[in-house]
Amino acid sequence: MGTAFVDGRVFVGNGKVLEHATVLVEDDKIVSIRDTASGLAKDTRRVPIGDDTLFPGFIDCHVHLVMDASPDPIAALAGQSAVITTIKAVKNAQKTLEAGITTVRDMGGKGGIDLGLKQAIESGLIKGPRVLASGSLICMTGGHGWPIGREADGPDDVRRAAREQIKAGADQVKFMATGGVLTSAVEPGSAQLSYEEMKAGIEEAHKAGKKTATHAMGSQGILDALHAGIDSIEHGIYLTDEIISFMKENSVFYIPTIAAMYHIGKMGVEAGIPAWAVEKNNIVTPHHKKSIKKARKAGVAIAMGTDVGTPFNYHGKNLMEIPLLVKHGLSPVEALMAATNTASQVLGIQNIIGTIEQGKMADLVLVKHNPVENIDILNDVDAIARVMKGGQFLEDESYKPV
Ligand SMILES: [Zn+2]
């Protein structure tokens, strides 16, 4: 028995929006997209699209499932037992999937919890999105993220650290190229892991067929990561013309994670965020805005990532990033593609997810009304009407993992 989403608007993910389309799902795959609902088998379960819009399952390229969005989440993590962190991560994963995010790329766990969580979801122990896990992020000693990262110094040690993550089951490897906002006593603009160090680590990841990502805010660190062969730049605060043309020519993805800065700026010290973090955030924000606009204008591929888990940046509110991307110059269709097709390319699994096309995995989300015309509707979690992952609705009793 198949399921058909019948007669309505379908955001394919490749730039096209179909009207009066019917999408047929069998088992865990999309088997056809038709312009008529007639001819469906009698026992097909019919889900009318009505006034809603059918989207490919959304993809968030930058989450931290172990972080709890408290005012100082790194400090919270440091003072927490692994059991509590794990229970929180399980809940975070559930909220994420319920919000229509069917795939996430976790950009830094702690003590292997992200890797275990991925296994728990795949084996059906808990409900959650597909997780592409990084294991521990790799940073220099005392560098950004050190309280949860694998500190490594020198090319040989970074190479070893990358091998360790791959051995533990990481889907990609993350390197810290610069300082950042949420670790005290590091500067967002300063370079951290060197070109030689990242080159060794990236080489290891690529040899194992894994993608690489980098926390990179300042220009020198970004350039070092790019020349070392990195596949995506996360945050990217200080993008120069040289950086932008390199990214465009070499098809390096840009994941600005606007929500991270937005929530710190909005909530501030009064909400309990450490003053040093708010101060750094205020300094980087105007540069970030300019960089996103410039990169978009130049045609750099921009993908959605939220950095959820950072202060007041809640798991399950991931889709807020899409209206934020629109505020920073992307068209609604571009921003929605950033969260579907472009994001699937970042992960390197564009043949499996990211668009509504025959043969793709049936990760499908029914969103109320038409977000292309009213993008702000995505700020409301109630806009998500139904979520299907791998051909199964979340609410189905028979839900089995895929
Ligand atoms: Zn992050």
Brief write-up:
The chain is of the alpha/beta class and 402 residues long. It has helices at 73-78, 82-98, 113-122, 155-168, 195-207, 219-227, 241-249, 258-267, 275-298, 321-327, 332-338, 341-347, and strands at 3-11, 17-26, 29-34, 45-48, 53-56, 58-63, 101-106, 130-132, 138-139, 150-151, 172-176, 211-216, 232-235, 253-255, 364-367, 384-389, 392-393.
Could you say which small molecules are bound to this protein?
zinc ion
Portion of residues in beta strands equals 15-25%
Q: How many β-strand runs?
A: 17
- What distance lies between the first and last C-alpha atoms, to the nearest angstrom? 17 Å
What is the makeup of the main sheet?
A: 8 strands, mixed
Tell me, rounded to a whole number, the average pLDDT: 96
Proportion of helical residues: 25-40%
Taken together, the total number of domains comes to 2
Shape: globular
Q: Taking Cα atoms only, what radius of gyration do you get, to the nearest Å?
A: 20 Å
List keywords for this structure.
alpha/beta, TIM Barrel, binds zinc ion, Urease, subunit C, domain 1, four-stranded parallel beta sheet, 12 helices, 33% helix, globular, eight-stranded mixed beta sheet, 402 residues
Topology:
Layout: E1 3-11, E2 17-26, E3 29-34, E4 45-48, E5 53-56, E6 58-63, H1 73-78, H2 82-98, E7 101-106, H3 113-122, E8 130-132, E9 138-139, E10 150-151, H4 155-168, E11 172-176, H5 195-207, E12 211-216, H6 219-227, E13 232-235, H7 241-249, E14 253-255, H8 258-267, H9 275-298, H10 321-327, H11 332-338, H12 341-347, E15 364-367, E16 384-389, E17 392-393
Parallel strand pairs: 1-4, 1-5, 6-7, 7-8, 9-10, 11-12, 12-13, 13-14
Antiparallel strand pairs: 1-2, 2-3, 5-15, 15-16, 16-17
Helix pairs in contact: 4-5, 5-6, 8-9, 10-11
Bound molecules: zinc ion.
